Amino acid sequence: MYALTREGxxxxxxxxxxxxxxxxxxSGRTSMKxxxxxxxxxxxxxxxxxxxxxxxxxxxxxxxAGAKSVKSDIEAVLADVxxxxxxxxxxxxxxxxxxxxxxxRESPIINDGEILQLTPDIIRSGAWERVPFKxxxxxxxMPEISYGRKHVLRMAIDRISRVLVExxxxxxxxxxxxxxxxVYDCLFTPQDHPARTAWDQFSLSKPKTxxxxxxxxxxxxxxxxxxxxxxxxxxxxxxxxxDIAMRMMLRxxxxxxxxxxxxxxxxxxxxxxxxxxxxRNDSLDKTHLLEFYQIEGWVMDGHLTVRxxxxxxxxxxxxxxxxxxxxxxxxxxxTEPSFEIYGRHPKLGRWLEIGNSGMFRDEMxxxxxxxxxxxxxxxxxxxxxxxxxxxxDIRNLHGTLCDLDFLRExxxxxxx
Length: 416
Ligand code: PHE
Hints:
Blueprint: E1 2-4, H1 6-14, H2 17-26, H3 32-35, H4 41-50, E2 54-57, E3 60-63, H5 73-82, H6 89-97, E4 101-103, E5 110-111, E6 114-115, H7 120-124, H8 127-130, H9 152-166, E7 170-171, E8 177-179, H10 180-183, H11 215-227, H12 242-246, E9 248-250, H13 255-264, E10 270-279, E11 291-301, H14 306-319, E12 325-332, E13 335-344, E14 351-360, H15 362-367, E15 373-380, H16 381-389, H17 404-409
Parallel strand pairs: 7-10
Antiparallel strand pairs: 1-4, 2-3, 5-6, 8-9, 10-11, 11-15, 12-13, 13-14, 14-15
Helix pairs in contact: 1-5, 2-4, 5-6
Bound molecules: phenylalanine (PHE).
């Protein structure tokens, strides 16, 4: 067997020097001076003369009769060698002496009394029974190949969705950019609430406002804010402004999607969840991103208590293998009572806030046309992943500062 040398490859691609030279001469360029500029001139002329294709006199190169159909066997042999065809020693000889091809040695199959490679012959001859196989050294370092794989966030989203589906939840979907009406007003959050200032939210300039809002819901939301809307509450006691409610923003929680769904699915029982992107004007640090994912969920039923809420969380986190959780009373304009949920980080040892939850207030539910109880929550996906995978810096996971080596090496904790 033979293999092309670098020179052989070059000639196969561009043609042999002697053939190229003759073509030049036949096309009318006969002056030595001019032809000498060709990079392959010297070798080309030597072989063209040897083959009797040209003669040289008085600074001119002349093609011999018959040179019109010059064809080189060598080119055909080069092509055969390249395709791995059998080539006789006699045909290969001139190419070997010009170093256009070289002999290729098969790598030995058996060496030093050990079989290096299993081939059909080794099986047919029965050598496999008599000769020992060389051992593989599985501890050798191999070059690392980074192949496509699921992102750690995607793995976690799949896993958590599966847990929630097992618990009877259906998935909901809603817009990333939405009117303040759905992000705040439907959630009984007054228009002068500190969270609604320009510093905390990302407002949209295009479009600046939503095209329209459902008139009946607007009327009920306005009533709830201004005087409680017949729920027995006094409301916030201010004059509610529809123009503010119409302004567009990037949602700061997926509870806006919950509000939209409550409007459409207001007869119990219902269980919905989403795991989607939200935006907050926070400062970036080990536990804060500005763009992150929230695990939103709600349960609607005739009568629900705080025990139902805690039991649901207990079950949810247990299914994920997280047992160390704590609840801390907190305040939300739209829930009463409200609880922050904390999980203990296995490495850092400290309690990390992983979510917020509560029972939706009547002022919110009645305005949305819901007569039953609803418990709801918003959990941080990335923080949950920190607990699940023992990570201590949220910025490695995604965003502009994410660590590619880290992402390549993330162990697969769960698959289905
Ligand atoms: N919207 C809250 C947050 O983003 C989470 C939440 C949802 C709390 C539903 C209570 C009820 O923190």
